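Work Package 3 (structural annotation) set out to generate three-dimensional models for the target panel prioritized at the project kickoff. During this period the team completed the workflow that converts sequence records into discrete structure tokens, so that structures can be stored uniformly alongside our sequence database. As a representative example, we reproduce one entry of 211 residues exactly as it appears in the project archive.
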Amino acid sequence: MPSLIFPISMQDAPSWLSSLVWTDYRLAVLFTVIIPLVLLIWAFVQRSEAIQRLMIIFWRVSSLLTITVYLLIGAFPIGFATGWLARILIPISLWFWADLNEEIRDQPSSPLRLSVTSWRWAVSAYCVLGVLVQIPIYLRCALLSSQQLLSDASCRAWLTPPWLLREYLHAGARPYFLGFLGLIGLGIYMLYLGYFVFFRLGKRKRSAMGN
């Protein structure tokens, strides 16, 4: 594999932190990528409109995690803040909509309904626990400069999985360029989020259908 511009060694980080980092990323892939993708496809096959809408909302909100990965590839400290914020927004997006909650609750018992309900509780617990556990690390790392970030063992440990992902998916791209793409994505995301909160949420209240 081609080498990275940034070092990916975790020799300076405690072994327990290395295990925590990789466990967290594996759980993130499971709960925020693999299972939601299966549920979305399943909902389309079963023609469950409420679950389809819920899963589409989830994917829109959780796109902040993808943006976070690109920011961390570029060693941009703001990536720690966006990753932390994403874990707050995801549970909100899954439980906020009263009409979707009611429609899903009133559906006949089925494997799809049970799977969606179980996943919602599991991913919400994962996000809330992550928010609490990562407060002392993520928020501290978010306040460092990029140079300080790279020289801090505990912060640099969280960059290792994104750097490894970059080697597999973007081996020919410079980390800083990918981080810059993440900044552009973050700008678009925040514009859309601001527009939704200040202009659409007041009209829609807690109705995902816009009624």
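DSSP finds nine helices and no strands in the chain.
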